[in-house]
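ok so heres the complex, two chains, lmk if somethin looks off
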Amino acid sequence: MLFDYLPVLTFLVMIVLLGIALTVLIPLVGPRKPTKAKGLPYECGIVPAETARRRFSVTFYLTAMLFIVFDVEAIFLYPWAVLLRSTLHVFGLIEMVIFVALIAVALAYVWRKGALEWD
Amino acid sequence: MIGAQVGAAVPWLPLHFVPASDLLGILPILIVGGGAVVVLLADLVVPRRGGPLLATLTGVVLLAALGTAVGQWAANAAHPVVFDGSYANDRFTLFADFVILATALAVVGLSPGYLRRRGLEEGEYYILLLASVAGMLVLDGALNLIVIFLGIELLSIPLYVLAGFARDDKKSQEGAMKYLLLGGFASAFLLYGMALLYGETGHTSLTAIHAVLLRGATAGQFDPMILAGIGLLVVGLAFKVSAAPFHWWTPDVYQGSPAVVTTFMSVATKVAAFAVFLRLFSATLAPYRSEWEIPVAVVAIISMIYGNLVAVAQTSVKRLLAYSGIAQAGYVMIGVAVGRPDGTQAALFYLAAYAFMNTGAFAVVTLLSRRGEDCDRYSQLAGLSRREPLLAGLMALFMLSLAGFPLTVGFFGKLFLFSAAIHDGQLSLAIWGILTSAVSLFYYLRVILLMYAPGEDVLETQEMEVAGVSPEGSAVAARSTASPAVLVVALAGFGTILLGVFPALIYTLLQGISVVHG
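and the predicted structre for the whole thing:
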């Protein structure tokens, strides 16, 4: 019975070994040619304008939460759009309409309660 | 998956609908869930302080769901299992639905007056309440590990928010934080147990898991991984029903939460969690009964002893009821440990009885609240019989019923559980139950004595000293503006006596109910 879990154990051991090997080998064999641009913090491809340790207004968390909600909605919409014609048909359409309607209700709620006002 | 065979004939034609029978099977959930959205939208358009209006709307939603459930009970569907065997809308589910929805209705009746007194009138309260009720309805009919987890999370997450609903009350915040952290911890235990069960059996469906376990058990093989999974399930569920030794959150959360939330939490959550407890243990995991019988019985006995002993030392009614709730969870666990249909029926009867007496007792606490605080300290109860003779009388009735006095519903609740244990040969459970019930008499009677003891009315004098308000101003005035709340307390008292004299009214409903798979 426990024997069935052998692949899981093998997988764990491999992960650990691979991790150790990569950490040890890369500094040993990799070439190092540091330039100023390589040393900059990565900010989605833009040249960093100022220090990263800035203070944010606490109201930003509401915007961030809303962003996540609509981000997740978009993530759902992509695979749904791909599969709609081939497999989901009207059933999928109805399901997505219900889902989007619920999110719209949430947006209306947030808007009306004033969470979109910055002050 | 659902309806795939229907649409196969004409691939582009939109026929992938959920069969109407599936939707019908979860109609109470749909009503409550849809109702939550409607109440949310209504909250946006009604003027501020539109509490009574939202309460009425919520009550209508719950009544509609209750009516649907009653209709489905009367229709007695032949194939109550829906959604590919992941939800059972059988009589077991419907009975749990009745208790949950009735409790929620009672809480909605208590809410408007209470929320106004404590300055907590926000529409979100009703939305979260409905969302939590929807989770409970999902949970009590779940036939699939995933659905069980979905139900538990859907009922818990709104409760975490509701527990901290008194935003300027430190105790409420503390309770909500403890509930959230420990609740998350318990969910992890539960999920781990489910993962082990799934890993060993390869199924999430309870029916399929049962078949695999039965095969192993008849061959005399008890898989250690499944035993570990069952152990983790016991921990996770015992947390939700607040059975000792997994009860640590209960007193602080019950005391800190606004009293209406505590009422809801202490009754409805317990019913839903025990429904899934009974379904898992007396049906799905029944083949492994010889292995889990002792641990479950031990949890029951520890709960009865610990809850009843610690309740003696309390000085707040809310904390007293929290510890008494731990003890009551222990009594219902007897029904889980007995397992057979009579154990299940006795547990369901006790839960229904508990809904009447505990909702009633908490409702009285709710009515005693005044501006900004709950008056739940013993010193504030002193002399209640003169200040509020009706409330004191009903409170005394609920206390007697919780203690299990004859002529109250609590007596028959305990009688059925103990006799089920004795029929099953589990004498020790019945003996511990009877002994600890005797202990519980002490603290329940103490509350009654406090209310009826002669002497000065501490609260009255305090209030006059502090604010110079006339003593008539508080609870009496509050009562006159909170007539639905008084109706709730009166109904709970009526039910406690009626079922104490005619327990058959409910017991006949339960005949023939047993937890089975589809």
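quick notes: The radius of gyration of chain A is 24 Å. thats all i got rn
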